Every structure is written in C-alpha cells, then in structure tokens.
Amino acid sequence: MRYARDKADVALLHVHGEQMxxxxxxxxxxxxxxxxxGGKARLASITSFLVNSASLxxxxxxxxxxx
Length: 67
Hints:
Layout: E1 2-4, E2 7-13, H1 18-23, E3 27-37, E4 40-51, E5 56-61
Antiparallel strand pairs: 1-2, 2-3, 3-4, 4-5
C-alpha cells in the first residue's frame, strides 16, 4: 500500500508461490482517487489493472452519486 497523507492511493495484490503459477492469478493494482468536500474525504474512483501472463485488463469504478 502507498499512502498519501492518511489515505491509501495505490494497493497491489497478488498470490504468492505455486498457487500463482498454477492458476495464473493476476497481479491486481488498484489506484484510488479521493476528493474532499466540506472537510470530508470520499472515494471518487478506483482504477484497477489486472495483469497476468496472457492479458492486461483495465477497469474503472465510480461510486453512484447521492443526490
């Protein structure tokens, strides 16, 4: 995890050892984008990179607006 002040901005996740080789489990990189309004921080988006030996996928998540 990498932190910007008190909030994480990048998370790396992967399986270790033989399980990764057998299942070709992807390396997962999640980039967190934060916004702040009225002194409160909220998650604005998550961009995920899923990488394995055969492919790279990029997925972007945005929370639903509360209006």
